[in-house]
């Protein structure tokens, strides 16, 4: 049984819809920015903010009250449904959304904690409990599209939305649902996360865009936090064909695991990522790897190890995080959508801003490559030790 994608939607920095996403990926446009005075000692930091695309929510009193992360998810989900040209009426629909920090970085949440700790009962907003409840994000997205069926929230760090795809595939193959709406949304940028990751020395503080948050570059001191949302529509092949849907690609398989180490340490071996990628590729030869490399040296060296061990550095590697940073729970679905666009339009997006210093042996794509793309593997790693790897193919009509 084949699981196929029939629609997608995205909202990200400098990206208000799928057309803008394709353009930025193809042209190698950087959506990140340097934020001055953001660090614990007023250092600069590299981040990815969404500056436009949510204006419509200001027009509705109820929607205006929703957390920013929820509005982002709604926006991406509605674009995905429109893209798929699907009528959900009468179908068994499941919604699966991946979230890492959710609304915990938003100003209302942060202020409510402060007010509560100062015993200012009246200043704690009535809506705080829903800001604190990660599943309220998925529930609100479901309500916005009139869905009363299965609604699930997956939260496994930065692998959340890719593992949401994995779970949705299981439900589609079992027949428990007919259509899966799968996505991810996260807005992690705030002082607490900046301070926390500064403590672990994985942020590019006082680095410029030329050397900070650069995948596959040994001078990069860390990753760029970003906000984003994405969503896809998944169906069984026969159902999609029956309704003459425009099939964007086939999700062949997803494999996930955990490093299995003490949470206050880091896995430098990469053995579990290697195992997941080996299992999902099954000796197949992808046209390229849509990598999770993000500018943290430990993570990027694990990608280098996988490249050498499994492909002898012959398979091209790229990372869209060079353009979009790392939007935590949403990055997996952004990688899926970028892969689908690559399959459809015949190009490999570049890893921008790197000269491959320290990674010269790898086959890193630094300029857009135009070619037929038939098969792609995705690597994804999450804080907390989860690894998730996907294999996606161009759909071949029977």
Précis, in short:
One of its GO terms (molecular function) is 3-oxoacyl-[acyl-carrier-protein] synthase activity. This protein has helices at residues 18-27, 61-64, 68-84, 107-117, 128-132, 135-144, 160-174, 191-199, 237-242, 271-281, 297-311, 321-324, 331-345; strands at 3-11, 33-35, 45-48, 93-98, 150-154, 179-186, 225-226, 228-236, 249-258, 288-290, 317-318, 347-348, 369-370, 375-381, 386-393.
β-strand number: 15
Largest sheet: 10 strands, mixed
Radius of gyration: 20 Å
- Total helical elements: 13
Proportion of residues in helical segments: 25-40%
Spans of at least 5 consecutive residues whose pLDDT stays below 50 are none
Report strand %.
15-25%
Question: Average pLDDT value?
Answer: 97
Summarize the helix and strand pattern as letters.
EHEEHHEHHHEHEHEEHEHEHEHHEEEE
End-to-end gap: 14 Å
Going by helix content, strand content and strand pairing, the class is alpha/beta
CATH classification, class level of the largest domain:
Alpha Beta
CATH topology of the largest domain: Peroxisomal Thiolase, Chain A, domain 1
What global shape is seen? globular
Total of domains: 2
CATH architecture of the largest domain: 3-Layer(aba) Sandwich
Question: In terms of quaternary structure, what is this?
Answer: single chain
CATH superfamily of the largest domain: Thiolase/Chalcone synthase
């Amino acid at each position: 049984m084949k699981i196929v994608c029939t629609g997608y939607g995205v909202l990200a920095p400098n990206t208000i819809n799928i057309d803008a996403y394709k353009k930025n990926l193809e042209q190698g446009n950087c959506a990140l920015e340097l934020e001055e005075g953001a660090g614990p000692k007023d250092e600069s930091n590299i981040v990815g903010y969404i500056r436009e695309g949510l204006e419509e929510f200001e027009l509705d009193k109820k929607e205006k009250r929703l957390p920013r992360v929820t509005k982002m998810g709604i926006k991406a989900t509605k674009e995905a449904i429109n893209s798929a040209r699907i009528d959900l009426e009468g179908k068994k629909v499941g919604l699966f959304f991946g979230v890492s920090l959710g609304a915990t970085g938003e100003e209302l949440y942060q202020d409510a904690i402060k007010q509560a700790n100062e015993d200012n009962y009246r200043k704690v907003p009535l809506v705080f409990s829903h800001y604190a409840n990660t599943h309220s994000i998925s529930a609100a997205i479901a309500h916005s599209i009139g869905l009363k069926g299965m609604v699930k929230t997956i939260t496994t760090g930065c692998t959340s939305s890719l593992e949401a795809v994995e779970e949705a595939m299981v439900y589609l193959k079992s027949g428990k649902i007919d259509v899966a709406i799968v996505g991810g949304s996260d807005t992690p940028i705030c002082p607490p996360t900046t301070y926390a990751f500064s403590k672990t020395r994985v942020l590019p503080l006082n680095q410029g865009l030329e050397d900070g948050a650069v995948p596959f570059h040994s001078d990069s001191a860390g990753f760029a936090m970003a906000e984003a949302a994405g969503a896809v529509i998944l169906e069984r092949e026969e159902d999609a064909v029956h309704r003459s849907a425009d099939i964007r690609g086939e999700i062949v398989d997803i494999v996930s695991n955990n490093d299995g180490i003490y949470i206050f340490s880091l896995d430098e071996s990469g053995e579990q990522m290697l195992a997941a990628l080996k299992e999902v590729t099954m000796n197949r030869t992808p046209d390229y790897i849509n990598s999770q490399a993000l500018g943290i040296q430990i993570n990027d060296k694990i990608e280098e190890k996988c490249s050498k061990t499994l492909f002898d550095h012959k398979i091209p590697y790229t990372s869209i995080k060079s353009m979009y940073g790392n939007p935590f729970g949403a990055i997996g679905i952004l990688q899926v959508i970028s892969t689908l666009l690559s399959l459809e339009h015949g190009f490999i997006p570049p890893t921008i801003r790197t000269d491959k210093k320290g990674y010269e042996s790898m086959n890193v794509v630094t300029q857009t490559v135009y070619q037929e793309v038939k098969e792609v593997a995705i690597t994804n790693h999450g804080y907390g030790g989860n690894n998730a790897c996907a294999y996606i193919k161009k759909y071949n009509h029977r």
